[in-house]
């Protein structure tokens, strides 16, 4: 027999304890036996392993290969400058790895600062004495003393209760307070039992005693946490795409290197010439600046999101949210405010939608019942107590004139879960007293003999009873929690106040409907999701009517919509669930954590990119399994925050929409700077092809390629990563799951249009300087002339990249429509790019590092027509595309 099915005496016996609690020696022994009351943490990666992981991404491995080849070449053929190349490549890998590690470490530290789920100290009874102990020292058999506001440290069986209610929302998703009582319960499952309290939940009102029966990993909280830990971490869409791009680049680089090495051998070039060529092709094809630029772009987006109250724990999560096609969201505390407020009143046969309300003189006892029939209280300017009573007190606080001191309480019948009502007797300032009662309609209506209607107090006929029940059903079907209010005036001399007579012959004053209201910004956020082609699915532990009512109010659904409850979901196969999702099912009610995880799994199998939002323990597994998990930072549990990749510091659902826009902009911008970076690959590769095929001196050295990729290109590429979102970015559908970063159009634009123009500029400038210096074909130019020629080749690439930076701001919009000066960071980046090139060309340090020599002004001017041509050609292409 389970613990909730036992009577109180049997509970003490089963757990080998007593109403005086455990003695200290036994508690210490059980602490040794069962271990501390804490969730065993998943074994985290050490800092060393996390750092090592940053050095072993696929693109990093390709760069390691290039560095290794350079070191081998330097060892076998000293004096060729290959050791400098190797050092430079290793520096690239190290800088990028350290930067990525630092960003993720900083985010993890920020997330760790939010951990605050379980209480540090709790009150227990040990050996008949009340003691305060650390929560981690609680053991099975301990007797917890529970009071209002306490966080419950372990799963426990209630053995005594006085109006005890708890908030189970962090564990089950239910928004309504749950009454607890000590009697044996026949519920089939622990979470349904009304005599159990659970770790991680909170006491809302009342007090009680409970005997601990499970601690740490054995609690329901611990089981969900373990389920969360078992869910494997999935790579983000951007991580998958970067891997794909890297493999494409690798295959291209290696095949070109091997192919042209063989070609060079076939035409009689020396081994070292061919080896140098192969490394050059590898270095030219590998976008060394891609990883640093992606990392910096994601970091900048993460910082922008942090200013909008969203903490990014893992940088790829920024872009992943932008590719989201479905958002699965919890209701309580995410879409709603996790509090109750009055939404409707039925008085004298008329329905008022709050803040519209009946006049006090028309129904004074309705307001007096709401104002006095409760045990909520005001502490330091805030109202504390049961959320329902808090809502009634707040709604009527400014309605009734004067204080309530004259309304002294004479008698009380406390709220009881079985009776479903509370009754009080208060003295009236004029004379006499009044019985005031509130409770469930089905509980209070049978006690009423009369009702207050338009014409006054009238007998409660069967027809009127039926009309009241119909009004109750209508309010309940709209998701409201309905209370009936009734009264009876007592004239002096007051009769004996006894429970069996006080509630006789009541007059029904009216009905009050309450609801956990949506967050005010949610409706607009849902609308923006719809416009962006993002589907929103509500998954909640609440009743289907409540879920549907909230969904209608926020614009998630209109009219009737299919709602699946957990029991119905359990009966469906995965194929049937997939069909339900495909046919537009958007609300799941009364769901368990594993069912939420199953919904996410089926959605991903349907090809959706799924974001999951939530704040409760029950959300943890789904948060971790989703493509992007979004947890609430203020009200979120430790499990939810640990499982998520994004934490909303303001618990604002609307922040998600801003994050989606930021994520879309990031992917859009990554394409922009990928186009920019890949364009320069062509003028880096063509000199090597000319070197092998034409037998000319190498026009562009490997160090000069690195000067472009890791020097002059870096800041403009980063500036393209900071390009503001397009005005219509949130009015187009999300990209498909399989849509690649490198599309055919992007590659054609970079490799077939922009790149060849830059390559033509580079080779023209190279030959211009050589011929100006008196070089003739087949000769080996003097060292200074050769260095000047390679410098001119490098400079031409830089000058045309300036024009490329402007045209890459959009693939369709004209630069003039965007505004030449709207991206100030790009202007700064171009000025820095030109400044770096001046340092490379005209300073001894630049000459030593990059192998350059000073150029005359005419060598710079050679590249300008090509830059203008590039600009004009791409503007023409955009004009055709817009048509």
Characterise this structure.
The protein has 883 residues and is an alpha+beta fold. It folds into 4 domains: 153 residues, Calcium-transporting ATPase, cytoplasmic transduction domain A, CATH 2.70.150.10; 227 residues, Calcium-transporting ATPase, transmembrane domain, CATH 1.20.1110; 153 residues, 3-Layer(aba) Sandwich (Rossmann fold), CATH 3.40.50.1000; 168 residues, 3-Layer(aba) Sandwich (Calcium-transporting ATPase, cytoplasmic domain N). It has 33 helices and 26 strands. The longest helix has 31 residues.
Number of strands: 26
- Name given to the CATH homologous superfamily of the largest domain: Calcium-transporting ATPase, transmembrane domain
Radius of gyration: 36 Å
Number of helical runs?
33
- The overall average pLDDT, rounded, is 84
- Report the biggest beta sheet as strand number plus sense, adding barrel if it closes: 9 strands, mixed
Oligomer: single chain
Shape descriptor reads elongated
What low-confidence regions span 5 or more consecutive residues with pLDDT below 50?
113-119
What structural class do you assign from the helix and strand content?
alpha+beta
Q: What portion of residues belong to β-strands?
A: 15-25%
Alpha-carbon distance between the termini? 75 Å
As a percent range, the share of helical residues equals 40-55%
